[in-house]
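Subject: design request, 477 residues
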């Protein structure tokens, strides 16, 4: 049986998302990131291509590790200037019917109580097509602008994120019963108060005693996305994620990462295929291999080595300006994205250790993922080879130029994959969760968040005594 390949589009509300320098290309339109029409046109294009969704990244700081400040990032437009991703969703949802939306926000600098309402609102307005990419943060500049000296240690960030998710699951799954909203005009009752429950959360980091402000949305809990591939990040993903994004420079590294995630899902009591795993990649394609190669060479003329090192320094937590270009990465400790460090500490498929020069060249187009170059048939061959040899479910497609890279994939690659039976001919209707798994709108029973779900009688996991606590005597435990 031919295995299905899934696509997400990877973008960011900025210029120079993953391919620094390519904003200078005459056909690139990333400078339109602050125009609503850019996003609505892109959403309609991706729906024509039957993408699972658009995944919008975000950070709350500047890339200031390279050279010790953000001068190079500003010069290169490397994810700066940058706007909020959540405000784009309603407009894109209004011009599409099936496309999903994976939105990135961090757990470090926003309280979960108002955040829960914002995501429920978007899940309502999209008809249940919302996903949330959970990030814990990694840029020191973000921490400083929130009054902290630096980010928490890597694993401590995940410990706090665990409680953050607990609060959200309680609000989304355990506060409102399905039939709480009665809209009984004759009795003058809009909501039955007995069917709305205070969650009574008193934790290490958060105190949230009350009810969720929103009535249940189509999915209640949006589809949970996660991109951590460190040991701690993998455990967090195995307990929470339904879609997992990874980045690896080679098939061997990707296969090891996917295998580790599948095993972690099993250890968490879940089906190892209960989360869709997408690998970062960039596709440069055209009608023929020769035309695609010419396009690739043209793009490389615009790629910025400095911009690539700005990104890599931020992702790896290492100031690469302090290294000679021919130095191997070596064994370094990082408080940033540990999987980024480990990926480049590995030997590539040819058994050669990566140097700083390799990272600079690699990061010129597509960030930490591979670049597939060729005709639609050639790229389809490679995608199917990677899926077969790594067990990955699909690809999170970054662009070289936008929207041109996505237009090329829709025109040249998707028809080939569809004809081969490796890509869907139509969407699965309904919510994003149902489209990904075909098993309904709600979290499956084995998911961590489902333990906070109301049972058929309206009971919760919390004793009645803490549902409506006396706030004058309640203490944080």
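Subject: RE: design request

Done. Sequence follows.
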């Amino acid at each position: 049986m031919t295995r299905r390949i899934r696509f997400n589009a990877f973008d960011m509300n900025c210029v120079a998302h993953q391919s620094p320098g390519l904003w200078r290309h005459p056909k690139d339109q990333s400078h339109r990131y602050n125009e609503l029409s850019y996003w609505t046109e892109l959403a309609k294009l991706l729906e024509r291509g039957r993408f699972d969704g658009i995944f919008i990244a975000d950070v709350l700081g500047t890339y200031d590790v390279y050279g010790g400040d953000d001068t190079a990032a500003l010069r290169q437009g490397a994810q700066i200037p940058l706007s909020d991703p959540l405000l784009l969703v309603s407009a894109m949802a209004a011009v599409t019917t099936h496309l999903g939306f994976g939105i990135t926000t961090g757990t470090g600098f926003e309280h979960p109580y108002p955040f829960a309402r914002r995501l429920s609102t978007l899940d309502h307005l999209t008809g249940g097509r919302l996903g949330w990419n959970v990030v814990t943060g990694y840029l020191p500049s973000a921490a400083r602008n929130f009054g902290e000296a630096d980010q928490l240690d890597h694993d401590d960030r995940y410990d706090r994120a665990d409680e953050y998710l607990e609060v959200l699951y309680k609000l989304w799954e355990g506060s409102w019963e399905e039939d709480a909203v009665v809209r009984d005009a004759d009795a003058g009752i809009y909501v039955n108060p007995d069917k709305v429950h205070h969650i009574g959360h008193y934790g290490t980091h958060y105190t949230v005693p009350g009810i969720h402000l929103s009535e249940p949305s189509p999915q209640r809990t949006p589809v949970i996305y996660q991109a951590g591939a460190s040991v701690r990040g993998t455990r967090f993903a195995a307990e929470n994620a339904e879609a997992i994004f990874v980045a690896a420079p080679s098939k061997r590294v990707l296969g090891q990462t996917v295998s580790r995630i599948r095993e972690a899902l099993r250890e968490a009591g879940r089906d190892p295929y209960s989360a869709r795993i997408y690998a970062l990649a960039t596709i440069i394609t055209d009608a023929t291999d020769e035309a695609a190669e010419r396009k690739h060479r043209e793009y490389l003329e615009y790629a910025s080595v400095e911009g690539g090192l700005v990104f890599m320094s931020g992702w790896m937590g290492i100031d690469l300006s302090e290294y000679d270009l021919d130095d191997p990465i070596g064994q370094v400790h990082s408080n940033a994205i540990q999987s980024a460090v480990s990926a480049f500490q590995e030997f590539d498929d040819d058994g050669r250790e990566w140097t700083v020069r390799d990272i600079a060249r690699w990061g010129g187009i597509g960030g930490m993922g591979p670049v597939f170059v060729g005709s639609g048939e050639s790229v389809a061959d490679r995608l199917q080879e990677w899926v077969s040899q790594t067990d990955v479910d699909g690809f999170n497609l970054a662009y070289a130029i936008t929207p041109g890279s996505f237009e090329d994939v829709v025109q040249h690659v998707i028809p080939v994959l569809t004809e081969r039976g490796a890509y869907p001919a139509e969407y699965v209707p309904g919510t994003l969760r149902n489209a990904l798994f075909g098993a309904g709108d709600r979290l499956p029973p084995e998911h961590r968040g489902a333990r906070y779900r109301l049972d058929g009688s309206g009971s919760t996991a919390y004793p009645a005594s803490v549902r409506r606590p006396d706030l004058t005597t309640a203490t944080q435990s």
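Residues 331-339, 461-477 have pLDDT under 50 and may be disordered.
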